[in-house]
Amino acid sequence: MAKKEKKHLNAKQVAYEKKQEQEGRKVVNWIFGVLIVVAAAFCLMSIYMYG
Quick count: other Cβ atoms within 10 Å of Cβ 17? Predict the structure, then answer.
């Protein structure tokens, strides 16, 4: 967003934008966490079945 556009945003809009960014990061972190858990479970299952 350009500086000129930022000047026209009021405090409520800036706070909303910040909140949305934080929630988006939280969702991304949850997705990566679930993928890591699923990958670990797959590795353990593979070791159990073929090991």
Answer: 13
DSSP state letters, 1-51: --HHHHHH--HHHHHHHHHHHHHHHHHHHHHHHHHHHHHHHHHHHHHHHH-
Q: Among 27, 47, 51, 25, which Cα is nearest to 39's?
A: 47
Q: How much is the mean pLDDT over the chain?
A: 89
Looking up tokens 């797959």 gives 42
* CA distance linking residue 25 with residue 38, whole number of Å: 20
pTM: 0.67
User: How many Cβ atoms are within 10 Å of 26's Cβ, its own excluded?
Assistant: 10
